[in-house]
Amino acid sequence: MAMNKVTDQMGRTLLVRQRPLRIVSLVPSQTELLFDLGLESEIVGLTEFCIHPAAQVAGKQRVGGPKKFRFDVIARLQPDLIFGNKEENYREGILQLAESYPVWMSDILTLADACAMIRQVGGLVGKGDRALALAEQIESAFARLEICSPPLRVGYFIWQNPYLVAAANTFIHEMLTRCGFINVFAGYGNGRYPEVTAEQIRAARPDIIFLSSEPFPFREKQRQLVAEQFPETAVHLVDGEMFSWYGSRLLLAVDYFQQLQNKLHSGDNMGDCPPR
After folding, report:
1. What are the tens digits of pLDDT across the range 157-179?
2. Are residues 165 and 262 in the same domain?
3. Confidence band of 191 (pLDDT split at 50, 70, 90)
4. In this structure, is residue 240 part of a structural domain?
5. Is there a domain that residue 135 lies in?
6. From CA 12, how far away is CA 238, in angstroms rounded?
7. What is the C-alpha to C-alpha distance for residues 78 and 135, in angstroms, rounded to an integer?
8. Within this chain, do residues 158 and 254 fall inside the same structural domain, yes or no?
9. CB distance 242 to 253 below 8 Å
10. Dihedral of alpha carbons 242, 136, 182, 29, sign
11. Per the domain annotation, does 136 fall within a domain?
12. Which residue range(s) make up the domain with 202?
């Protein structure tokens, strides 16, 4: 069996079969990418949170969640390549898997990181040309993205009770910046997703609060409650996949961002988050 020595985005070196035939994905956005690269028959396992593309993922074996793997199920699948991510998966679980299988890890904070991941994954699975074309499409689309003008001060919420927000050094921050938004919590606290109080939110003076559809599923009920709590600030529901999924879904993100900006400047305070 021909093997290739490769280095993942965390600088780890591993041996990978030249053409993997049994792939497990532990990251929803990378799962969608693998399907879009044409690997439906090679994908044998994915997580409970891998929801796109709906028709293809429906018949695949689930191997637990991104932060709680079912090692017994993974063992039965006998993967010859596993895809994970530094932020979305848990270190102990990845280390345990790496003792038995080649585990390729992504580490993505920027659009450049995401496009590099797409190209590298494509090369690993024998879909290099397709991945190269996809990455170029994404880069071209973002190059055409119009910057929000005048710039708006935004707070991006990912959780309630307590409120958690996206700070700097996150892919969400990268997407906000690409749109021309000013992330009011960019330099806040020590973590990447700090907890903030109502007083701190008011002190940050956001023009707009974005309530993400994930990981906490903010919906209209929560939007109304937050709007009542911060009447001086516009509150919008937004599609978290567009801001935080760094695979082939980025092809859809630019149109979404452009439409969102148009809604913001038209004064529509309902946002643009699809119901689920």
Report:
1. 999 999 999 999 999 999 999 99
2. yes
3. confident
4. yes
5. no
6. 35
7. 30
8. yes
9. yes
10. positive
11. no
12. 153-266
pTM over 0.85: yes
Tokens of 199: 């007083």
Q: What is the pLDDT of residue 145?
A: 94
Same domain as 157, residue 260 = yes
Could you tell me if 66 and 88 are in contact, meaning their C-beta atoms sit under 8 angstroms apart? yes
Two structure tokens written together for 245: 């999924």
Are 156 and 243 a contacting pair, CB within 8 Å? yes
| Neighbour-count burial of 270, counting CB atoms closer than 10 A to its CB (0-12 exposed, 13-18 middle, 19+ buried) | exposed
The answer to whether residue 275 scores a pLDDT higher than 70 is no
